[in-house]
TrEMBL record, chains A, B:
Family: Belongs to the purine/pyrimidine phosphoribosyltransferase family. PurR subfamily.
Positions of the Bacterial purine repressor N-terminal domain: 4-73
Domain called Phosphoribosyltransferase: residue spans: 107-256
Gene Ontology molecular-function annotations: DNA binding
Protein name per UniProt: Pur operon repressor
Domain of life of the source: Bacteria
PANTHER family (UniProt xref): HYPOXANTHINE/GUANINE PHOSPHORIBOSYLTRANSFERASE (PTHR43864), PUR OPERON REPRESSOR (PTHR43864:SF2)
UniProt keyword terms in alphabetical order: DNA-binding, Transcription, Transcription regulation
Keyword Transcription regulation: yes
Entry's Gene Ontology BP terms: negative regulation of DNA-templated transcription; negative regulation of purine nucleobase metabolic process
Pfam family for this entry, one: Pribosyltran
Biological source species: Bombilactobacillus apium
Transmembrane region(s): none
């Protein structure tokens, strides 16, 4: 029994959404729908156009024997700006002010609709780039890492301050915690990361950058390469010049000032929009 | 300019996928596509049929003024069995055996494609039920909680062994850790959970159930109601009879036997398929 185009378009859209960055040969869909490859090509063309028009992401077709169709969940600068402003408004609430100039973020990090936006933003920044894994620090970096992993279709690994018996052998490095100005230790399960991996590091809050610097060292211990760092909120509080940092970080939001006494905070957009290339087709690695 | 059905079907599919459990009035789509509500109704009917046929989830339309369309990401028993067997095979690797009869799970918990399956399974178990939040224990329960939160469209909260300065005021309870047989403390940020919430608790590994019991107490401290417990792997190792437990847990997988000496393990499906009702329409709360 023949499968109609409407059914193919619906299932194709669902399939691509749930398989980002996976190159799927057209023959796979031709068999799935018992339809001619030419019909599938027409379907893809329609989907590609609608995804672009509706800002749902980029559907690209790679020609040739090893070719197929691939979905990149990258959004436009306009939509990214909307997501960022939405996050900024949510965080600009004085009730979030915590002692020590910290921001209460836990609720944000547990809301799936916001995490989808954060993941989409990070995935857009690194769209089409060669990335093997995402690294983050327990505990509050995990939601950020998972949201990005969903859209980039790469695994993420969790660095911890104290290793657990359920981690197996670990590799550890020391780092200076910017928050408490003392040397701490961070560990990662040895088998969790292949040596030579290309890594992006993500975290919820950066103040001074000690944690990021530690993750940088850890990546090097695994003979890997740190290709990017993105944080949800960067705090200017510690007054560390980006240039002085070992690795420049991309921030979605920037905590410019926070006063526990006056219960005031000033949170602006970070440097995300400046550093992000919104034409990922350019950077695709075939 | 008129928007064609093909475009509507693609965008509708994308929209529903990204807004699970959100009741969307047809007028929203009528405006979005400058199309008649009757056309939108026809689109929904097509999508509903394809989603059911392809096992992509349940699209339901609620009639009346307060009505609209809602997507429930629930899968069939057949697809659930495929997901579970896939997970079982991945975990049944003797190299995962860790001292103390633990399983190395960290890699599994960082793979987005597997987390999608876990999330879909948990969301199917609780499909259509009234749930306000998902609770989990740091660190390795977090990926499970987030994967389920994505499909159930509810926030998740993270219980921690030691509170952080970035959590604000916390509520804490003591619990007996099944693994090390000593009394430990677990804390949850006070503002992270409204009192009277209906909660499901999830975790990666249950051995004895001390952590779950602790989360049960914590839910009661928040005057909430624990309506379900689901774990990725339950270990028979501790020989705790389900009946003896304060709260019966649903397990996706069951670690029946593990021998560190012989480097052998026997992992089977848990009780998920027995306890899950695969007809969520029945339990929908209007």
């Amino acid at each position: 029994m023949k499968i109609r185009r409407s059914e193919r378009l619906i299932d194709l859209t669902d399939y691509l959404e749930n398989h980002p960055y996976q190159l799927v040969p057209l023959t796979f869909f031709a068999q799935r729908y018992q339809s001619a490859k030419s019909s599938i090509s027409e379907d893809i063309t329609i989907i590609k156009t609608v995804f672009k028009k509706r800002d749902l992401g980029i559907v690209e077709t790679l020609p040739g024997a090893g070719g197929g169709v691939r979905f990149m969940p990258a959004i436009s600068r306009e939509l990214a700006a909307v997501y960022l402003e939405n996050l900024r408004e949510k965080l600009a609430d004085p009730q979030r002010i915590l002692p020590g100039g910290y921001l209460y973020l836990s609720d944000i990090l547990g809301q799936p609709n916001l995490l989808r936006q954060v993941g989409r933003l990070i995935a857009t920044q690194y769209a089409g780039q060669e990335i093997d894994a995402i690294m983050t620090m327990a505990t509050k970096g995990i939601p950020i890492a998972q949201s990005a992993a969903y859209y980039l279709n790469v695994p993420y690994v969790i660095v911890r301050r104290e290793s657990k018996i359920t981690e197996g052998p670990t590799l550890s490095v020391n780092y200076e915690s910017g928050s408490v100005h003392r040397i701490e230790k961070m560990e990662l399960s040895k088998r969790s990361l292949p040596t030579g991996s290309r890594i992006i590091a993500v975290d919820d809050f950066m103040k001074g950058g000690g944690t990021i610097s530690g993750m940088h060292n850890l990546v090097e211990e695994f003979s890997g390469k740190l290709v990017g760092v993105t944080v949800l909120v960067e705090s200017n509080d510690a007054r560390v010049d980006q240039a002085e940092k070992r690795f420049p970080a991309t921030s979605l939001l920037n905590l410019q000032a926070i006063s526990v006494e006056q219960q005031k905070l000033n949170i602006e957009l970070g440097n995300y929009l400046e550093v992000t290339d919104f034409n990922p087709e350019k950077q695709i690695i075939e």
